[in-house]
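Q: Here's a chain of 193 amino acids. Please give me its 3D structure as tokens.
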Amino acid sequence: MIRRLVLASTSPFRRELLGRLQLPFETAVPAVDERPLDGEAPATTAIRLAQAKAVAVAARFPQALVIGSDQVAACGEQRFGKPGNRNAAVNQLQSMRGREIIFHTGVCLLDSASGRLQSACIPTQVGIRGLTDDEIFAYLDKEDALGCAGSAKSEGLGIALMRYLRGDDPTALVGLPLIALCEMLRVEGIALP
């Protein structure tokens, strides 16, 4: 019998990534306050929010395996969330140019029946080119990046803004680290190739 699998997210990017595993799943809105706590490290925020999303959804799905994920982009003390509007995206990209940004992607798998929780944070180092303002404007004219942390989608035209990507799981940068998630699913008895 295949366990019910629930993705605690409405992100189309996470939905597409989870679909790669060819397992039946459904999605649910986690309704979690995503603000970081005072003094909280980016990786800690990513894991805490991934867990909080899974826990928030688990109550509605008492016999399911619930997946939560969250991402925090940071450079030193500066964090880069979803810009929400063009001016904020321009400001983000201007402050990121020529720098290395770490994208901390937290993933959690919660067995709502047993309460067993597994979690991990997968970092991805992203070097941003020394972009000109004209390059930033041209990019934002062509790509809707207002709903992604750091205003640059590596799975789209945003790859042209980057000097390098370094990490253990290329899907982590998109928002759901499938390599870590596969290991968690295997622990719960889900058969994967």
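Q: Can you summarize the key feature?
A: The longest strand covers residues 100-111.
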